Amino acid sequence: MKNAIEIKGLTKIFGELKAVDNVTLSIKEGELFGFLGPNGSGKTTTVKMLTGQIKPTKGNATILGKDILRSPIEIREIVGIMPEQENPPSFLTAEEYLHFVAKIRKLDNIKEKSDYWFEFLDFENQKNVLCKDLSRGTRQKLMFAQTFLHNPKLVFIDEPLINLDPIIQKKVKDYLQNFVKSGRTIFFCTHVLEIAEEICTNIGIIYNGKLIFKGPMKDLKRRGQHLEDFFLKLVKEA
Predict the structure, then answer these.
(1) Domains of the chain
(2) Mean pLDDT, residues 54-76 taken together
(3) What is the pTM of this model?
């Protein structure tokens, strides 16, 4: 399979803080790649660079063959992005927001596509509620829906499960695993190691901005290692 993401020497410096430090990484199509690290380790900054939201200080990357420095808008058009913070516009209802996203992405059958997600994530009764009045869990459902609304080949998702109840969590985990089985790719940021161990095909561990490990989950499982123990050992050594 081809590489969906290729990262070479990606670095981001804010003043005296090196938030991301010379990260080099390749992720193949069809991977459910878990990007793991403690809070403040550089996960979100990396995603923002890869999706053209901020420019790297040094280095470069390609996303589905597109250069992040030359084509940031094109990249945002073709990928799905779910940020850690649930922040849909407060003045729109949930349904209005999904329809707005669909129009921006120039989708057909807007009502049919948005209705699918309301039903799938079980929040049909919240369609006409203003986003500012939705619970955190429901806002997270809404942001998940907008991420996948246009059926992208690649998505970046940041902590997508932390506010969901166990029933919806199971649905979402199954959906993510089926998504990559069709050859599409997920870049999954989390510090919840149990979820990563359960669903990720490959993992990368970032600590203090440095990538300290990348490898397939099956290798850890074959050695009988739990991800939590492996992660804590690596971080301690780093």
Answers:
(1) 1-79+154-238 (3.40.50.300), 80-151 (no CATH)
(2) 96
(3) 0.93
